[in-house]
Amino acid sequence: EDLGVRHRLWVYSGRRGVHCWVCDDAVRKWSPALRAAAVEYLSLVKVGAQRARNPLPTPDPLKAGHEPAVPRWPRRPVAPGLDQEWHSQQDQGRDSSPVLGTAQYREPLQAEFPRKKDSVQRWELLRGRLERTRASGRGAALGPCYADWEVMLQFCFPRLDINVSKGLGHLLKSPFSVHPKTGRVSVPLDLQKLDQFDPFAVPTITSLCHELDTAGSDGEQEDVGET
């Protein structure tokens, strides 16, 4: 929307990602530099080997990315028993929260985390503490801390592949092609029914071959019957 893009086709990659095929005529003529600039503009969270993130000097980009993330939080990232469960008991032995910012905020929170029974309580502790700090103006010398927003972005904001997006000669898998490692077909996504999409239920090359073999056998039996 910010870039004026209108014609988009969203396609499941067949593994862990999603492709957005931008079909606007003007965008398809962009140079690699323009493409790289667009992806850089859309990239708020960049995670490397140490799970570090790009520093965000003002809350403006945080706010822009944080608002769409709020409706999906905290269903999966912090809910007990689900696969992500941010800052679970298993994470207590290591620093699983690199986005908590300066030691002024991080150390008191991590000292209290073990006394909370699950990720939901730890999240409420973090969110409440930082909201009160921002409202009271404490810590003004270091600037307000938006670590709760950054945690949401860390889990909910997409990570973009800049090389695929900027390279005019980059190899791309077409919609309906088969992923070479999973065997799943890259199927288009209906954004209105995205919560119903199950990546494990999409057709695979094995299931398609089985259907074709079954259809071929049925056809042969019909031909025999007619003869």
TrEMBL record:
Region listing for Disordered, in residue ranges: 52-100
**Which residue ranges have biased composition labelled Low complexity?**
68-80
Could you say which enzyme class this protein belongs to? transferase
| EC number per UniProt | 2.7.7.102
Pfam families hit by this protein: DNA_primase_S
Offer one example of a GO biological process linked to this entry. DNA replication, synthesis of primer
A Gene Ontology molecular function term of the record: DNA-directed RNA polymerase activity
Compositionally biased, Basic and acidic residues: which spans? 84-94
- PANTHER family reported in the protein's UniProt record: DNA PRIMASE SMALL SUBUNIT (PTHR10536)
- What family is it from? Belongs to the eukaryotic-type primase small subunit family.
Return the protein name. Answer: DNA primase AEP
